[in-house]
Design the sequence.
DNA sequence: ATAACAGTTGAACAATTGAACAACTGTTGT
DNA sequence: ACAACAGTTGTTCAATTGTTCAACTGTTAT
């Protein structure tokens, strides 16, 4: 079955109208990639914890019952997405939320859960 | 390496303080599951389109260059998460966003992308 | 009734992803 | 210089996930 052509165009006006506003693929990939990061309970727990206060890798491992390795891997992903930022202090690295967006995205998500 | 114990507890006060506020696992799973749904470019494109106007499955397939099947599978997931709602009209099924949260979560996500 | 078509659904396959393990950096203190 | 420890990183493996294909519903019109 051929993509996009296994059906007649039912409402051409609608499709055209929306198509004109449609952002390019990169936009959607970036947006999806951002949400993908929130889409894992371990990462969400880390973000939630860092929303309370700055913590080092070991603290997070103990708090969330994970290995340092697992925490570090996830922090790397979160760092890469500019959601957390590191602060080195001797041997330890303290992590905190990078900006206010994280908190806001969280709040909207929780709103939805509490209704559904 | 034993989980959560491959390091000394460095800041016990911090860990305890955060632990007391820590929601149960279900909370984080639900939250992650919600974001997981936004974490796919096809679903995000569908949601974006439905944010402009109500559309039927075929319209979405043509607009986004997908098979009806692929669209329907994704709509099922979105329906299940209460993000879209169907409206049957004869042979066609029109979908629209279920509530305002979707739009708000979107906006926050885009804010973040445009800064990073 | 039956043909036509919008939409749904299940199974199978490829691609992605999180966790675990082990090896490695980098900093501190002796 | 070296031991100790916080953190990082690469690899492997199992599990999850998106898409496709094919078969199936359900509604409309003849």
Sequence:
């Amino acid at each position: 079955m051929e993509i996009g052509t296994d059906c007649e165009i039912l409402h051409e006006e609608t499709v055209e109208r929306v198509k004109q506003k449609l952002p390019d693929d990169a936009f959607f990939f970036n947006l999806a990639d951002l949400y993908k990061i929130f889409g894992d309970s371990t990462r969400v727990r880390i973000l939630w914890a860092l929303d309370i206060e700055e913590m080092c890798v070991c603290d997070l491992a103990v708090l969330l019952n994970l290995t340092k390795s697992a925490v570090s891997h996830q922090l790397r992903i979160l760092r890469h997405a500019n959601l957390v930022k590191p602060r080195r202090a001797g041997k330890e690295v303290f992590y905190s939320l990078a900006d206010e967006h994280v908190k806001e995205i969280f709040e909207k998500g929780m709103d939805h859960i509490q209704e559904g």
